[in-house]
Amino acid sequence: MVNITEKIKEIEEEMKRTQTDHTQEYHLGLLKGYVLPCSKLARLRAQLLEPGPGAGAGAGAGFDVSKSGDARIALVGFPSVGKSTFLSKITKTKAEVAAYAFTTLTAIPGVLEYGGAEIQILDLPGIIEGAAEGKGRGRQVISAAKTSDMILMVLDATKKAEQRALLEGELEAVGIRLNRDPPNIYLKAKKAGGMKISFSAPPKNIDEKMVYNILRDYKILNCEVLVRDENVTVDDFLDVIMKDHRKYIKCLYVYNKIDSVGIEYLDQLAREPHTAVMSCELDLGIQDVVDRCWKELRLIRIYTKRKGIAPDFSEALIVRSGSSIEDVCDQVHRTLKDTFKYALVWGASARHVPQRVGLGHLVADEDVVSIVAKPK
Ligand SMILES: Nc1nc2c(ncn2[C@@H]2O[C@H](COP(=O)(O)OP(=O)(O)OP(=O)(O)O)[C@@H](O)[C@H]2O)c(=O)[nH]1
Ligand SMILES: [K+]
Ligand SMILES: [Mg+2]
Prior knowledge:
By secondary structure, this protein is α/β, with parallel strands linked by helices. The chain folds into 4 domains: 2-48, no CATH class; 66-180 and 246-297, P-loop containing nucleotide triphosphate hydrolases (Rossmann fold, 3-Layer(aba) Sandwich), CATH 3.40.50; 185-245; 300-373, Beta-grasp domain (Ubiquitin-like (UB roll)). The protein is 31% helix and 22% strand. The radius of gyration is 25 Å and the shape is globular.
């Protein structure tokens, strides 16, 4: 390890000394057929990312960064697409940025403050094709991505369009499902009674025999199955069987470096679904990407109000979408629920204002909530 690190230092120093234009050098290098400092550097740094001897299966474990804040977004992408540049733009963390691949060698957390919430942004090493099979530190990167609430897939607008599908393939291979809901299939294993398979509508892509065979392959011989969606595929069925190893995560595809592509191509990229475009270099589109992230995370801001006093809009409580008054209580204090009598709600979730509600009431973004406790 020390050897590689030393060699890397040497080359980096040399590059600093010579201060050549590396694009120029790249072309010259191609002509002459020798290995350039830049690509030599990338190769050596890739070696640093290889799991060392004895790392074994442990190499698949995530990086040791504890979760903090209200949500976590992972930056995933091929090397040198600008992940660390983006992190440095939107947080106070200054990650190392350079023109060679594998500049980032571990997970680097930063904090994005937005609408009163703190969102942890995780900058990750670049992944390469074959990451899912354990190439480079790919598996570790993907494990870290799996722990996030949202993936920001950073793509290089100047690179081939295939990069997006390649990366999706790597994530799919380890059970990450992007921008999809779990298949609408009810599957319950039983102790006895054989298989009971039913469909709420005639399925288009599978039939009872196929379902039977899949279940038998997975040794699920006694169970109840209800397929509630006519478009279900065999892959969907497998996802349900392996649901403990599947993770459904939102993804925003972000094309960086749009300063270097033509306007027509840019327009085409921007129209793809779940996609945003930006240039970290020219400071273009960054705020839009951040706004889109906030929307996708669907976090809810709740303002609390005490009786007889105006609501406190300076500090919001942050809860997930689908949260109830009970979740709001838990966010304030662990034991608040115990003395809960009712809550008053002003805002989008209230039918009339204020609406008197119980613990089960679902809250909406920017609701004002006043919790009334039982007398002691
Ligand atoms: N033209 C252009 N270059 C950019 C832009 N954003 C970043 N770069 C350059 O792209 C190179 C790579 O940037 P990094 O932020 O290190 O990329 P990374 O994805 O973190 O790379 P790894 O950590 O090696 O995976 C640097 O030379 C950046 O200056 C951009 O918007 N336009
Ligand atoms: K880089
Ligand atoms: Mg980086």
